[in-house]
Amino acid sequence: MTLPQPHITLSSHSYTQREEEMGSISAASGTTVLPYHLRRQNNRRSVLYDHRHENLPVVSSSQTKQQRWLYVPETKLKRETLRLGFLARAADSTSSSPPVVASGDKTLIPDDEFTLAKISFGVIGLGLGVSLLSYGFGAYFNILPGSEWSAIMLTYGFPLAIIGMALKYAELKPVPCLSYADAVKLRESSATPILTQVRNDVTRYRYGDEQHLEEALKRIFQYGLGGGIPRRSAPILTMIKEEVLTDGRYCLVLVFEAKALKLSDFEQRQAKFTSFFGPNITAEVGKGESENLYEVRLISNVSASSATP
After folding, report:
1. Which one Pfam family would you cite for this protein (predicted)?
2. What is the predicted pLDDT for the residue at 146?
3. What's the whole-model pTM score?
4. What is the secondary structure of the chain as a DSSP string?
């Protein structure tokens, strides 16, 4: 006669302690229960896996035929997201921004280069002569020391003062020149020798001439001749400008003041301006900024690429 075996129920706490003591328990044939610390690690991994995938959409079995999900590693997903965002911003900025148009540098370059042509010899001669005369008379009357040199000072001081006064009387002051940075860069390669000579002549002191470009204006406007203008109505050069046109050509602008002339008087002589300041020059006439100002544009037809070094 076989006695029935007593049924023993272990609590979870005692079962856990028992597993820790034994290390492993055979539950059934061919099945091994892992130790507690290994089970704990597996549980932690499963919790982390559930946490990483808890936001993923749940796809039912009926939707698996229509949608297929691809698992992408997190680091690769971040790189792809950043790259797509950068491309989107670049495409948006390219489509929204207007086309960039290269414009010339319109910065004014001051004409502060020191040359002898910008010095008034009349002022120098007059100042030196008057100084010698003043000191010579003071030394002659024993007001100032150096009485033995007074005769030499008076001898040289008097003619220097006369020459200085004569140069000052016949002096023609230079006209202002407005030069833009892009025109200065293009000057050496595109400006013709005649344009360079005109710019140098009108921006320095001249002596004996009634006005700048006197010979050129006399031939173009034909003072006192048939079809010409009276000499008292001659235009006066007040300013020159160096510019670069929109097509990239160098241009020297002559600004004249003519109270007795009209724009038609300049337009009738536009061909004469071209022939006189040529070759390789195209002259254009236009109205100035104020009422009595007129502009004559001397455009160089010499391009920078075809200019010889």
Report:
1. DUF2854
2. 86
3. 0.61
4. -PPPPPP----HHHHHHHHHHHS--EEETTEEPPPHHHHHHHHHHHHHHHHHTTTSPP--TTTTTT-------HHHHHHHHHHHHHHHHHHHHHHHSPPP-------EE------GGGS-HHHHHHHHHHHHHHHHHHHHTTSSS-GGGHHHHHHHHHHHHHHHHHHHHTEEPPPPEEEEHHHHHHHHHH--HHHHHHHHHHTS-EES-SSTTHHHHHHHHTTTSTT---GGG--EEEEEEEEE-TTS-EEEEEEEE-SS--HHHHHTTHHHHHHHH-SSEEEEEEE-SSTTEEEEEEEE---TTTS--
